Amino acid sequence: MLQACLTPELASEITLQPVRRHGVDAAIFFSDIVVPVLLAGLPIRIEPGRGPVLDEPIRSRSDLARLRPLEREALAPIRNAVERTVRELGTTPLIGFGGAPFTVAAYLVEGGPSKDQARARAMMHADPQAWSTLLDWCADITGQFIRAQVESGASAAQLFDSWVGSLSADDYALRVAPHSMRALAHLDGTGVPRIHFGLGTDRILAQIAELGIDAVGIDWRIPLDEASQLLGDVMPLQGNIDSALLSAPWPVLRAHVDDVLRRGRRAPAHVVNLGHGVPPDTDPDVLTRLVQYVHDQTPVTSGEDP
To answer: For the domain with range 2-213, which CATH number is right: 3.40.50.300, 2.60.40.10, 1.10.3720.10, 3.20.20.210?
Structure first.
């Protein structure tokens, strides 16, 4: 996985394949949230069936001494891959990708995937200064990572906070949100739209909207019209087709998609997408059919905004 992410030809090809096969309206750069961690010198790896693993987790102030800056030269494979991809895409936009500081830090503190990120949540209270230092580091390497993609031709940038749903609203506001803002601030001056996506964010949507973003990704847990209402009906939304239903009979999936499209009309704009990733056992033909169905329901003619 990580070798593919750091091999420009492979990363570009994997990014392009969904566009060629399914006819989606944009590509998203193929990578992993721990790629900048590896490029900054921490020996993290991805274990099949488990995910990112760090044998010596970051859990104390002394551990912070192992953190090194991410050098610009280390991002050369990322820049190369994005440039290749943008050339191949032509007029199809590419969305840059990066992991939010909390999710990146959670992997580093836990040493791998965790159900509730208990060690990370404990560290943020037990040693707030060490926690802040760690998240600043995560914010900066992620910020550099997504900025490199934008400078190489990506048309937008998306910050993924997979584990943010384990936090209380107060912890998010006080101990996480400022660091997400720091990561996104690396895009200042680029002029590209910024998207935030997290899982289990219904209780912190208003705080997420204050990060300085242009759209909010919504998972499958909350209907889009309710999410839009929580955000004052002023924020474009992305989502939120339940990926579990990709294996359901087509009439069931179609009815669900119709409901998502209907509810999404409450927001000022709606980027139709899944509420989470594609399950590995999904029939690719279902994805092609889904994309075509959404296109048929939401035609765009010359002069209209999509």
So the answer is: 3.20.20.210
